[in-house]
Amino acid sequence: MSMKTQLSALLLATCGIASQVPANACTGITLKSKDGTTIAARTIEWAESVMNTMYVVVPQNQELQSFTPSGMDGLKFRTKHGFIGLAVEQKEFMVEGINEKGLSAGLFYFPNYGKYQPYDAAQKDKCLSDFQVVSYVLGECSTIDEVKEALKKVRIINIDPRSSTVHWRFTEPSGKQVVLEIVNEVMQFHDNPLGVFTNSPGIEWHWTNLNNYINLQPGTLPEHNFGPLEMKSFGHGSGLLGLPGDFTPPSRFVRATFFQLTAAQQPNAQESVFQAFHILNNFDIPTGSEQPWGKAQADVPSATQFTVASDTHNRMIYYRTMYNSNIRCIDLKTIDFNKVKYQSEPLDAVKKQPVEMITIR
C-alpha cells in the first residue's frame, strides 16, 4: 500500500468521512478555579472501532515534518518547546496536548463548514496537515498571540481532499482562549470567553443558538396553577426542562454550556480537573447510539474513547479512557525536555477496566 493510500485510509477512519456518520462528537469545556487556574477539558469520540491511541513525548529541538498528499514532504520545523500530545492512529496525529509553557491545543471535527486552501505542490515546504497543527503550535508557541503569528506563515491542508476539515481550540495559562476555523480558505480566529466547544456549525452559530434556551435555569421550578389544577415538579432540576439530550453538536454545546455555568467554582486546580471529568461524564456516548440497530460492536466499550483535561497553570495533563476510567496524569514539570527522548506509549498498557475488590470480614 502506498503512503498516500495509507494516509487516506487513516484519515477516513479517524474522521468518519467515508460513511458521513457523526462518529467524532468531541465536546470541550473550560473551568477556572478560585486560585486562577484554567482547565481545558474535552472528550474524543469514535464509534466505528478501537482507535490506536497514545501519548507522545516531544522534546525541545526535535525536528518534525508534515505529511502532504505525496508523503512526509511538507513543512519541516524544529521544536522550541517540549510538549505532551495525545495522538490517534499514529504519533504524528495529535488531537490534544499541552507544552512546557502551559499552552494547550486541541482539534475538533468540523465537517461541511470549513474549507482549506487547495494543496499546491509548489509550496509544499509551507504546507501543514490539519492533523499536525497541534504539534506545530505546541512546539512553536507559548501564547495565543504567538499562535496567530506562527499560523500566518503556513498553509493548512488536508492530506486527502475527501476527508473532513477540523477546527481548533487554543488556551493559554492566563485563561485566554481562541478558536481557529478556516472557512472559504480564510483563517478566522474567535475569542472564546465562554470556553465551550463542539463541532459543526461554526462557533458563532453556536453562540447565537444559545438564545433559544434563554428560559433554562438551574434548580426546581415553583408550583404553578393551570386553572383549577395545581401543578408541581416531579423532581429536582425542572428548571432545565427542555435541555436538549441528543448527541448532535448543537445539543451538546447547549448542555455543556449549562453544566459548565452552573457548576460550583472549585478552590484549586485539581478539584477543577475532577469536576471537569464529572461534567464530561454526561457526554460519554454509548456505541449503540452511534450505530444502526444491531450494528454496535461489542469490543468497543464506548464511543468516547478517551477524555482529557489540561491544567495550563501547573502544566499537567490528565486522561482516562473507555477501558480504564481511573484518571492518570503526566506532570510536565518533572520532565527535562532538553534531554528526554522523542517517544510514544499507548494510553492503556492493558485494555481492561481494573476492578477493586472489597474484602468483608
Give an overview of the whole structure:
The protein is of the alpha+beta class and 361 residues long. It has a single domain (3-201, 264-346), classed as 4-Layer Sandwich (Penicillin V Acylase, Chain A). The protein has 7 helices and 19 strands. It has helices at 3-15, 133-140, 144-151, 203-209, 249-262, 269-280, 287-290; strands spanning 28-32, 38-45, 53-58, 63-65, 76-78, 83-88, 94-99, 104-109, 127-129, 155-157, 166-171, 177-183, 186-191, 224-226, 229-231, 304-311, 316-321, 328-331, 343-346. Strands 13-12-11-8-7-6-3-19 form an 8-stranded antiparallel β-sheet, with helices on one face. A hairpin with a 5-residue loop joins strand 11 and strand 12. The longest helix is centred in the C-terminal third of the chain and has 14 residues, at 249-262. The chain is globular and about 75 Å long.
